[in-house]
# Entry
Amino acid sequence: MAATNPELARAGTGAPRSPLSETWRQLRGPLVYLLPAALVMLTVTFYPLVFQVWMSFTDYGVIREEGKQTLNRFGPGGLPPANYRPAEGVGLQNYTDILTNEPAFVARLGGNFDFWRILGFNLWWTFSNVGFHVSLGILIAVLLNVEGLWGRKIYRAIFILPMVLPNIVIATVWRNMFDDQYGAINQLISMIAGSPIQIRWFNQIDPPIPGIPLPLSYYAMLIANIWLGWPFMSIVATGALQSIPKEMYEAASIDGATGRQQFWSITLPLLRPAMVPAAMVGIVMTFNLFHIIYFMSGGGPLGRTEIMVTQAFRLVNVNQLYGVAAAFSVLIAAVLIPIFLITNRITRATETYDG
# Structure
């Protein structure tokens, strides 16, 4: 009979581990691998976010009689400069000045600031653009998906050009095209009309359509951004179309369904799982679309095409009111998060689709 090792016997009958120690043993390995990424995220993402929220409750960057407050507390020799003054807490003053359009605050920004007008235009700008992007993207993807279409691959290669060009190049080219004296758009209109026509696209204050308080510069930027935005939606729609089984269309044809009926009953419902998340991405991107607004209209005329990110940029780089700009950025997040949650709930974008 084989002898039994006493040490192995004692090890086998040892006390069981507690649930807490067992959980730690299972998580110890993954946590070691996640730690470097967590440190990077803490440094480049969470710390700036927390610091910005703190800064929104201070007068960071406010211009005072003694001169502009310096942000660097370490001057020559490591000593604070003469014009350094630590930021002082102001509570909710930055938020109330923004939300109530406090007259002295508005005058300090040049007189054209109106938070609620900026927010209203920003929302209209976002949803009007995304509506065109999604509609045109689906329509063009369906047209280019027709079997036997000559040059289909060439067309698909061409329509992604707006996505690969630098943003500042796109905005500058479209700005020049809408130039009131030498722009290609006015020249084309003059050619069609048979007489010189000079439309002041970015300087006309009165709205071109009575009853709709949107300046002419809005429509110029809308045309430019439609050209810029539909290719992304078309690429998403094209990929989704490739996944639709042809047998479904064949069965629908046998049942007597017309092409229009197949589009509304088969194509659109099966495109929805791909297009809804793409539309939500488009909403966030268009809401924060800086370059088209800033480089084409500059927020004009009289700030009527200003959106929230361009206004925040001015608060930082023109007015250097960093505390106010931080509060304004917090308000941007406070607007975007409910929009995301509401659209997500209405469209059920994050739900799974089992067919």
In short: The chain has 15 helices and two strands.
